[in-house]
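Design review, sub-item: ligand-bound model
Attendees: FS, YL, KQ
YL presented the inputs for the iron/sulfur cluster complex:
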Amino acid sequence: MLEREREDWAMKSEALETLSTEEIMAWAFDTFQPQVALASSFQAEESVLIDIAQRLKVPNFRVFTLDTGRLNQETYDCMDALKERYGIQIEVFFPDARRVENMVKEHGLNLFYKSADLRKTCCGIRKIEPLNRALKELDAWVTGLRREQAVTRAQVKKIEIDRDHGNIVKLNPLADWTQKQVWDYIAAHDVPYNKLHDQGFSSIGCAPCTRAIKPWEDVRAGRWWWENPEAKECGLHVNSETMKTAEAPMD
Ligand code: SF4
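KQ shared the predicted structure:
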């Protein structure tokens, strides 16, 4: 896609804000096929988007995920349940094995607890580099981000230009959904979801860096809980225009 075309989409983003989730999904997959895919870490939001795509009968619907090597078994189970239910293929991107080996050799397996810098090093190798590889082939990507998930996501637009990933189009069709809407949808359509949610996990990530939360805690409180809440993104969803305070997160 030409740079000028991407800027045209950016110009239209305010008008596109008024579109429904289904309209944005239909528009996105109509416009950008086959260079468009849903990024999933198998959170409830992405289960919703996969179900919506199937209802819209999106042809050649693409989903990709990043397997950091530190995921929970429940996440792999969710991946299999979605594949079975909807008959979809999921593209899995792994980190570079040599870089992981060197990192572990130098800093140990649990380096993320030692310092914020080492945590970012781990996210960089296990998540950001594979994400960059996945996005390199795309003109647009779709996420399950919602504004109420975190202070670092409050400004998320339904359609953005992703300046941090080669100026491709980034679509967040659930940006204005509430947590209740997500769970009402899942219940109404009997959508497969990650069973970690039943154990109190509001957010799904790597096993050592994600914990269940208490009912009164912020939905992102279970991620890197030992760090400053205003800066704890891993670099996958940082937008240089709307998330300036975030450090550099699929989640
Ligand atoms: Fe590493 Fe934790 Fe980041 Fe996963 S979330 S890539 S284990 S630091």
